[in-house]
Predict the 3D structure of the following.
Amino acid sequence: MVRKILKYGDPVLEQVTERVTEFDTPELRDLIAEMWETMYAAKGVGLAAPQIGFSKRLSVIDISVGADETKKIVIINPEILSSEGKQTGEEGCLSIPGFREPVTRAFKVTVRAQNEKGETVELDGEELLARAFQHEIDHLNGVLFINHLSALKRDLIRRKVKKLQKAGEWD
């Protein structure tokens, strides 16, 4: 089932999420399946549970956007163990549609997380995958990509979103 993606302004997007404590359950499998469907329908490379209204430390990532089954990654209760280098690239967010801005992030990261079965995994990512890991983990900490922008750019986006809300074009 494709779920509605919450948009910037919804308070759940700016809250720290709760750890997942039960694994390999029908509920968790269903949530992950719905997250994949929702992300692919929106043509995204990542989706965090709070973006569909679940305040859980869970994200799905596929930098191939569905083109390569082996690229699908589920991270539960993730933490960044190490990061190195810098990269600056255009970033967007399914919860802030229509806005893309350059964001500087680490070039390479190592993440420790749990998979759907609760097993601990360590994953390395560079370039786009590193960016996706950082972006999705930010979501789980209540941080949006616009928090990485200058105050001026962030305010400009907020004002544009407010105009869209007044016009009934931002639900």
Notes: Helices lie at 26-41, 127-140, 151-166.
